[in-house]
Structure formats: structure tokens, C-alpha cells
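Input chain follows. Return C-alpha cells only.
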Amino acid sequence: MSDRTTKERIFDAAEGLMLEKSFHSVGLTEILEAVKVPKGSFYHHFKSKEQFGVDMLKHYVADATAYKTQMLLSATPEPDPLRRLLSFCEGTICRVLETKGKCPCLVLKLAAEVADMSEPMREVLAAGNREAIAILEQVLQEGIEKEKIAKTVRPAEMAPIIHDLWNGAMQRSAICRDATPPRDALNFIRTQLTP
């Protein structure tokens, strides 16, 4: 297998394990056993568990950003930016239901745990937040231009508020094991944005 394939397998296994547990509670041996890779292969790709965490989060954030860009900024098949945003949120609620209320997002799951422990990991998370907010800002601006979002909305101010509201609702959903918080957040977002 190529180096990239091995790294991808390690990232995929670790993501699943860390969504179930946490960064600290998942050991190197557990990850390597899941992908049937020797310890030497791990250290061929990563100099430490922290470096692995940085690279894993970069990989996850890149995939999440690409997905958000595709879902929120592509006018096909949905030309209405507000509907795109609401559908994206509804899809996330479906994932919460599928996971029985467990957090389906690795960034949200690990943020509080690793932000104080590792400055490089915190920087990756911060960059991911900035990218997500920029995507929201673009979809809001497009919605205003297409008269699908209220003209009173200021995208640069509203995008971080929506981002933070949604992340807080997702965190409370994981704590309560209930999809009500993101549903309530979605209703609030709809009310604030609808012209």
C-alpha cells in the first residue's frame, strides 16, 4: 500500500475510535490494531502522538471544509442559499439521531480536550473554525443578493453567531443525548434569516 493509503486508514480508524472515546483515551496500540499496521509504520508517518493529532485534525478539517463548501456554496441542485443552509443543518440533526445523540463531529468532540494541551492542535481547530465561518458568511451574502435571506442580516456579524449557536447546540445535544437543542437552534436560525 502507498504511504497515503496507510495514513488514510490510520486517520479513519482513529476518527472512529476517538468519536467513541477521546484523544487521550485512545492508545496507539488500539489504533494500529484496528488497521493491522505495525508500530514502525506509525512512526514512519508521525513523529509523536501530538503530531499525529495535528495531522489527523488537518485531514478531518480539510474533508469537513470541502463537504461544507460543496453543500453550502454549490447552487446545484438547490439554487436557494437559505434552503441549502437549512438542509445542511437538518442533515446534521439526522446524523445526531443516527448516533443516538453522540457527537458526530471530531472537531467538536476533541476541541475542549486538546485546545489547552497542544498549541499546534488548537491552531488547526482555530483555522477550521475560521474556514467554517467564512463559508457561512458567503452563503448568507449569496442569500441576501438572491433575496432569499433578510436584507437586515449582516453576514460578517451573523456567520460567527450561527456557527457558535450551532456548535453549542450540538454540544448540548451530546450531553443530553437529545436532538432537541439543534432542532431549536435550526428554528431560531430560520426565524432570523427568513425575509
